[in-house]
Amino acid sequence: MIKLPEFNPSRRLVRGVALLIALASVAVGSYWYWDHSRHFISTDNAYVSAHVVEIASQVTGPATRVFVSNNQRVEQGAPLFDIDPEAFRLAVNKAEADMHQRQAELRNARTNEQRVRTLVKEQFLSAQAGDDATMAVATAEAAYAAARADLAQAQLDLAHTHVTAPVSGTVASLSLRPGTVVQASNPLFAVIASDQYWVDANFKETDLEHIRPGDTAEIRVDSYPDHVFRGRVDSLSGGAGTAFSLLPAQNATGNWVKVTQRVPVKVIVLDPDPEHPLRIGTSAEVTVRLSSAIREAANVQNDPALLRRQP
């Protein structure tokens, strides 16, 4: 005899309830995802940036002292390195002596002009002699002005032998050592400025419709996955990243394939945290709250005419 399976209504009810809960969960999750995507947009193609100041000497000479080390934190105005000042002190002394000489020549030219003008007035000398004396004064004045400028430049060069930090930040790529002959205007190392950090978030071009400057954002840096930084959209680039590459894409070919492009969006970090120091070039994830999409949704809800036009 074949035994039929026993009918258990309670088990069937449990299965039905479980199925309904699963369907409800999927529906709620789908709705949440749909609603979230209307108000937020994210990308993990994002990298931390900051201003990088190249440090270079304005004069040429051997370095005598280096006050900082690589990766050291420095404040604006802190000493970075010195260049041997002796040659520049000698240049200042020479310029001072030259300026005193030019000053004496100018004084003598003015005195001589007064005598000549008196003799010209009394007709003991010709008018041309008076003009020549005036010209000599003008020449002496020009020489004195040039000497003063030379002295100012020499003093400035001497001051430039002591190099200080132009901004507060972190020293990077430092290889300078005492004894190294420094060439003027050649970058030696960098200081990563700490006054402002931002994230270059490369959103898909299809995601840019509702992103506006001023939108708030959340930033998660891979170095600190459990810490959230507050951000604000500062600007959107005027072109896709590929437009500024050394070899821009050439799409005027027969085998062209359309590829969604990425457009850099600058997101300012509003709350840098010394406990979570940011490092340029590190990866991040950015989620932008779309204020324009929120306003549009609010307008639809409050405007019956717009509601009637919704599909």
What is the CATH architecture annotation of one domain?
Orthogonal Bundle
The CATH superfamily of one domain is: Helix hairpin bin
- Name the structural class: alpha+beta
Shape: elongated
Helix content: 25-40%
Distance between the termini: 61 Å
Spell out the helices and strands N to C.
HEEEEHHEEEEEEEEHH
Biggest β-sheet: strands ordered side by side in the sheet: 1-8-11-10-9-12
Provide the β-strand percentage band: 25-35%
- What's the main sheet like? 6 strands, antiparallel, barrel
CATH class of one domain: Mainly Alpha
Q: What is the total tally of β strands? A: 12
Low-confidence stretches: 304-311
Mean pLDDT: 86
State the CATH topology of one domain.
Helix Hairpins
Tell me what you see in this structure:
A hairpin with a 7-residue loop joins strand 9 and strand 10 (229-236). The longest helix has 36 residues, at 86-121. This protein has helices spanning 9-39, 86-121, 127-159, 291-302, 304-309, and strands spanning 40-56, 61-66, 73-74, 79-83, 162-164, 169-172, 181-182, 187-204, 216-221, 229-236, 262-269, 283-289. Helix 2 (86-121) runs antiparallel to helix 3 (127-159). It is of the alpha+beta class and 311 residues long. It has a domain at 85-160: Helix Hairpins (Orthogonal Bundle), CATH 1.10.287.470. The strands form 2 sheets. The chain has a 6-stranded antiparallel barrel. It has a 4-stranded antiparallel sheet with strand order 5-4-2-7, with no helix packed on it. The chain has 5 helices and 12 strands.
